[in-house]
Amino acid sequence: MKTKKYKCGVILLTGFPNAGKSTLLNSILKNKISIISHKVQTTKEKISGILNLNNSQLIFTDTPGILEKRKYKTKSLSRSIQDEEKNVDINLFIHDLTKTLDKRLLNEINSIIQHFKKNYLVLNKIDLVSKDKMLKYSEFLNSGINFSKTFMISAKKRKGLEQLMNSLISEIPERNWKYNKKITVTKSIRYRISEITREKIFDFLNKEIPYSVKIKTKIKNEDKIVRIFQEIFVNKDSQKSIIIGKNAEKIKMIGTRSRIDIEKILKKKVFLDLIVKKMRI
Q1: 3-class secondary structure, 217
Q2: pLDDT band (50, 70, 90) for residue 154
Q3: Which residues touch 107 (CB under 8 Å, ≥6 apart)?
């Protein structure tokens, strides 16, 4: 009798801010794992989504701040990045095709990817540019950097993902699975719900509110409804007023949008209560 061989691969998503890393992660997993915002570097902590297909387990990791860490690298940060690189089987470098490219950027990309065992170039937002531009960018990036493969995708519209997935599955190594098949994300549901509300705050108040917003979430499960209570902590009274808005309009909009996304994750009706507070020093 033939023994079933299991495969398991760690896949890192890197790229410049707003390249579409979080959108790609969510599209692959068909689940809201990482928050998406026009505000750069909104993902605060490393978060992994796990996809199990037949005998293959793919662990996708969206790691925030890897570019900043390299730019302002210290000895302690250098060690943490090197440890991460050792564990990665395939790095996906995601580039936004609507952004301009020059030789300086080639050097920056090289410094990010050179230590990974294998790098794929993933050109995102093909739905927004011409075919000529796609081919021109692919040729330019591959001329200066040693990418194993190149993929053209639209993470938002889920175009080109099948080819990318097939390649990843064929190239990840044979090894035992790292996670139980019931686990689909490495962060708790409380963390994910907190992040959804943080995402909505940045959607509505991009420039007015800093990254330092913190959210504390309490969940109370009932038979037909989930009651969620969130405290939104800000640094100043002025920020508190901005989030609440005139006649509480902003906080109502944030709450409505958050509740819709939370209900999709929990697959249950949600009552959401939001309170904005100033952090205690």
Answers
A1: strand
A2: very high
A3: none
The closest alpha carbon to 25, from 147, 195, 234, belongs to 195
The span from the CA of 229 to the CA of 244, in Å, is 16
Tell whether 128 and 199 lie within a shared domain.
no
Buried b (16+ CB within 10 A) or exposed e, 197-229: bbbbbbbbbeeebeeebebebebeeeeeebebe
**Residue-range definition of the domain harbouring residue 59:** 7-171
Are 5 and 55 within 8 A, CB to CB?
A: yes
Tell me the per-residue pLDDT of 49-64, one tens digit each, with 9 for 90 and over: 899 999 999 999 886 6
Residue found by looking up tokens 């194993």 in the block: 148
Q: Which of 69, 52, 72 is nearest to 7 (CA)?
A: 52
Query: Is residue 263 a part of any domain in this protein?
Result: yes
Among the listed residues 197, 205, 167, 173, the one whose alpha carbon sits nearest the alpha carbon of residue 258: 197
Q: How far apart are CA 263 and CA 270, in angstroms?
A: 6
Instruction: Provide the pLDDT for residue 74.
Output: 47
Helix 237-244, helix 249-266: angle, nearest 10? 70
Distance CA 141, CA 259 (A): 41
* Low-confidence winner among 14-18, 149-153, 209-213 (lowest mean pLDDT): 209-213
For 227, left (φ over 0), alpha (ψ -120 to 50), or beta? beta
pLDDT in tens, 199-257: 898 888 866 676 678 899 999 999 899 999 999 999 888 889 989 999 999 999 999 99
Domain limit, last residue, from 114, 145, 171: 171
Tracing tokens 């509300």 back to the chain, one arrives at 197
pLDDT of 5 strictly over 90 = no
CA-wise closest residue to 144 among 117, 115, 111, 167: 111
The answer to whether residues 122 and 196 belong to one domain is no
Dist CA 141 CA 123 (whole Å): 10
